[in-house]
Amino acid sequence: MTLSSLVGICLTLAFVLVLVAVTMRLIRRVALAPQRQGRTPAVQLDVVQRIALGPRQGIAVIRIADQLVAVSVGEGGVRPIVEIDLPPLPEPAAEVVQQPEPAGFGPALLSRLRSAGVPLLFLLALGATDLAAQATPPATAPATRPATTPATRPATAPARTQVAQPATVATSPQTSLDKALAQGLPSIDLNLGKNNGDGLRLSGSVGIVVMMGLLTLLPSLILMMTSFTRILIVLNFVKQALGTQNAPPGQLVAALSLILTGFVMAPTVEKINQTAITPWLDNRIEQGAMMKAAIVPMRDFMLRQTRERDLATFVELSGAQVSTPEEVSTVVLMSAFVTSELRTAFQLGFVLFLPFIVIDIVVSSVLMSMGMFMLPPAMISLPFKLLLFVLVDGWTLLIQSLVQGFR
């Protein structure tokens, strides 16, 4: 490297350094120019207070420099309402020291908005007052008429007072039940006793609760004292034996079981009507005698369908000493009856499954001999099961067998 080239490099480096220094100097002067002229580069902005008027609406007070501005905040955006000029604070007095004003701009904001003509909160309060005033006139109107009438016409005041007083005396001894009947409202009375004066009497809400409690026992009585249990279980076994998942639907099976229960229990219900309900409606027997007479046909039906072994088992479990089946209590008889119904229903289900199992075995054997291991046997056997069930008229035979099994 020669001396001339080294001098050239030094001069170039010095020129670059001088250029950088001059540029930084100019940038600094431009940045500090607004401050030297007395202007601020930014404006101070603070949210002083916010009052919510709804889920998405509200009023906010914003401080911009030394000025307060009230704006409305909502779905339409932010809109200015009024500019608030705070007056100079008064000198502290003795009363102000004893009761200091609460911190915050909430009361000051409300007063400023009210004086500025933005009474949104006050309109809500006035609307609530108008609603209360509309609801109170019917109750206050009768009270104001007697007060103004004697002042204007004193001569007629005693006559009106004498006529109104017997009316209030006549209506005062009415009970709540009489008022309900007078207004046409429904009521429920439940009397337990020989006469109307003695015994237990339940009316109103208590009577409704007791009646609803008794009605909740009705499904249990149908399951424990009728043929509904056996019929429902057998129909479900038929549905599983056929291999159909949703045909027939569960609601249809339950409805069919209930209808068949009506056919089976029709003679028993008719006997109950003749021996208990009709004499009670004709006032020939009392309620207690009616209930005793109504339970007799139901006990006869359950005794006919209950096995002696099941009945003896539950009598032994209860620890009662009986000599004849008629002396068994109703609870023990119901338990033995349900157990016998379950046993009979499972026996019928086993008989119903046999022909359909034979079809499944034949179809699976044929598929295995043909090497069709990936084909489900249930898919092939289902049409054959349906065809067999329809050809033998299975629904008619099944329903006929169920109904005849109780007679």
Structural class: alpha+beta
Q: Distance between the terminal alpha carbons, to the nearest Å?
A: 131 Å
Q: Report strand %.
A: 5-15%
Count the E strands: 6
Share of residues in helices: 55-70%
Q: Strand count, sense and closure of the main sheet? A: 4 strands, antiparallel
Shape: elongated
Q: Mean pLDDT, as a whole number?
A: 74
Radius of gyration: 47 Å
Count the DSSP helices.
16
- Across the major sheet, the strand order is 1-2-3-4
The SSE string, one letter per element, is: HEEEEHHHHHHEEHHHHHHHHH
Model regions low in confidence, pLDDT < 50 over at least 5 residues: 94-106, 116-174
Summarize the structure.
The protein has 407 residues and is of the alpha+beta class. 66% of the residues lie in helices and 10% in strands.
Walkthrough of the structure:
With 407 residues, the protein is of the alpha+beta class. Among the domains are: 44-84; 209-349, no CATH class. It contains 16 helices and 6 strands. The chain has a 4-stranded antiparallel beta sheet, covered by helices on one side. A two-stranded antiparallel sheet has the order 5-6. Strand 2 (58-64) and strand 3 form a beta hairpin. Helix 10 packs antiparallel against helix 11 (250-281) and helix 14 (330-369) packs across helix 15 (377-391). The longest helix has 40 residues, at 330-369. It is elongated. The model is unreliable at 94-106 and 116-174 (pLDDT under 50).
